[in-house]
Amino acid sequence: TTVCGILYPRESESREVVPLDGIWKFCTSPAEDQEKGFRNKWFSTDLEEWIPMPVPSSYNDITVNSVVRDFIGWTWYQRQFYTPKRWWLDKQRVVLRFGSVHYTAIVWVNGKKACKHSGGHLPFEADITTLLFYGTANLVTVAVNSTLTLSTLPQGYVQHPNDTRRYPPGYALFHYDFDFFNYAGIHRPVYLYTTPQTYIDDITVTTDIHEDVGIVKYTVEYQNKLRDPSSVPQCTVTVFAKDGTKVTSVTGVSGKVHIPKANFWWPYLTNPSPGYLYTLEICLTSEIGKDVYRLPVGVRKIAWNSTTFFINNMPTYFRGFGKHEDSNLRGKGLDYALLIRDYNLIAWLGANAYRTSHYPYAEEALDMADALGIMIIDESPACTIDNFSEELLQKHKEVMTDFVRRDKNRPSVVMWSLANEPSSFRNESREYFSALVNLTKSLDPTRPVTFVTSQTVDEDKAVQFMDIICINRYPAWYSDSGRTDLIQLQVKNELVAWHLKFNKPVLVTEYGAGSVIGMHTAPSSMWTEDYQVVTLTEHFKAFDTLYKEGFLIGEMIWNFADFATPQEYIRPGGCKKGLFTRERQPKMAAHITRWRYWTLAHSS
Ligand code: GCB
C-alpha cells in the first residue's frame, strides 16, 4: 500500500477548495441504545430529530443541556452540499478532508462509507470522487464517538459501578487522568478540494544554512490515478521570496535548491523580520495538464549539544508557556478571532515559543507560528499515559507517524514531544519510550525528540533516551503549598541534579500557580493574583542564577490562559494558572511576564 501525504488543502490554478463549515444537523444517540443510528441507517437519510450545531466547534458547551455537555458515546452530524458538474466533466479527483474530529469518526457520503478515523487531533481525508452526485445535492454524515479507552491517546475508561445503593443499574462513570475537559465534536475545518488525476501527493522539505546561503532539500511524491505507465510527469520547483520575486528554479521530483544571501527563519525578536517564509512552488506537468501546490518554507538550521539549543548556529533560549486549544462556548473548536487574539497576546508578551500541550494543534495555528517566528514544541496527544501496553505503543507509533507527516515541513516546529507526564517511573516505560524515540528519529532525523516528565531525577526511566530534558514542577503549589520562600532553593537544586545526571540541556516546560482574577491578599496567599506573581518572580530569580551555569535552555509558564477541566473540587471553575483569563484578558502575572520576556529578549 502506498503511504499518502496529508498536505493542507491550498487553492491553486489546478485545485479548488470548498469549505463545508457552517451549521450542521446534530443529534446524540440515546444513552441506552448507542447502536440506534447504525441500525436505522441514519447515514442514508435526513436525520429526523436534530438540533443545529456549529462546525468547527466542540458540541459540549453550545446547548444548555448537561446531557450534551457530558455526553460520552456516538453523536451524529449531517449536512447537504452541492458539487458542480464541471468537476466531473474535467475529471477532477475530489477529496473530503477533516482537520480533526474528536475522537473516533465514521464518514458516509450519500449513504456509502467514505472513511473511518480514530484520534482526535490530526487530519484525515477520503477520495470521494466516485461517491458524489455531480450537479445535484449530496449528503454527508459523520458519526463521532468521544469515548476514550486504555488504547486511545489520551487514555480514558468507562466504569460501571455495581453499588446499587448509590448508582442505578447500568450507570456509567467516565474517567480520565489528564487535566483538561474531554471536549468532542468536529473541531477543525471541513474541506472539499479537487486535484487533477495525476497530482502532488506529498512534499518533504529539509533546510540547512551555509554562511549566508540557504539550502532547501526537497522530495515530491505524486500519484497517477490514470495508471498509464508511459506518462511520467515532469516536476518543476520554483522558489519565490516573500515579496513575490522569483529566486531560482530547478527540475526533478527530488533535489536541492541553493538560495544565495538567504533570509533565514528566525524566532520572534531575534531579528527585525522573524518568521521569514519563502514560497516553494511545485508544478507537476503530465499529459493531462498541470498540478500546482505552493508550500511556505522557512530556511533554518536546528542544532543542540549537552548544554545549548541553537537556531542558525545562535544559542536560543525559549521564552514561552504551555497552551490549550480552549475557549468559551466553542471549547476546542478552531476560531479565527481567538487564534489571532492569541498571537497578538504572544507578541505583546515578547514570547518566542510555546508547547502544543497536550496534543497536536490546528494547522491554522501552526501557520501563524511559522509566519511570526514562534518556536513550537510539537506534542503528541499522549497526556498522562499510565498503562503501557503493546496495543498502546502501536497506536502511539501510528500517531507519531501521522503527526510527523503533517508537521515535518514547518520551520516553527523545533522539537517533538512524545508525551506529557507519563508514568515514567514504571519499568515498562523504558522500552516503550526507547522504541518511540527510535521511530521518531527515523521519521525525522533533523529535530530533537523529548517528552515531558514530572517524575523525580532518581525515579524516571525514560529521560535517558531524550535529546532535551523537559520538566514540569510546581514548588509552592502541589508541594509545600503556600511556601514561596522555598522556590529558589528547590528549583536550583533540582535542575542542577537533572543536568548532572544526564548531561543534557534542561527546559522547564511547566511551573506556576493558580489565580482567580480579582483576588488579592497581602501577604500573598494561594489563588490570589499576588501569589501567582510571587511564584513566577521567585522562579525568575532561580532561572537567572542557573542561566549562568549554561544548561538551562528555556522557561515556560503553565499556562497561557485559564482553561476548562472536568468538574473537581480542586479547580474553581477550571484550571486558573493562566497569565490571561479564559476570555484572554491579562492578569497581573501577564504584566510581569511581559516585563521579563522583553528584558530577556533584549539581553541575549
Ligand atoms: C500538570 C499537567 C497539566 C496540568 C497542570 C495543573 O502537571 O501537565 O496538564 O494542567 O499540571 O495545573 O495541574
Structural description of this entry:
The chain has 604 residues and is α+β, with helices and mostly antiparallel strands. The chain has three domains: 17-146 and 182-194, Sandwich (Jelly Rolls); 196-300, Immunoglobulins (Immunoglobulin-like); 303-603, TIM Barrel. 20% of the residues lie in helices and 30% in strands. It is built from ten helices and 32 strands. The strands form eight sheets. Strands 25-26-27-28-29-30-31-32 form an eight-stranded parallel beta barrel, surrounded by five helices. Helix 6 packs parallel to helix 7 and helix 8 (487-502) packs across helix 9 (529-547). The protein starts with 16 loop residues before the first strand and ends with a helix. Residues 179, 358, 420-421, 454, 472, 510, 558, 575, 577 line the site of (2S,3S,4S,5R)-3,4,5-trihydroxy-6-oxo-oxane-2-carboxylic acid.
Helix content: 10-25%
**CATH topology of the largest domain, which one?**
TIM Barrel
Helix/strand-derived class? Answer: alpha+beta
Low-confidence stretches: none
Q: Let me know the CATH homologous superfamily of the largest domain.
A: Glycosidases
CATH architecture of the largest domain: Alpha-Beta Barrel
Bound molecules: (2S,3S,4S,5R)-3,4,5-trihydroxy-6-oxo-oxane-2-carboxylic acid
Counted beta strands: 32
How many separate domains make up the residues?
3
CATH top-level class of the largest domain: Alpha Beta
**Rg, Cα atoms, Å:** 25 Å
User: Separation of termini?
Assistant: 50 Å
Cα shape = globular
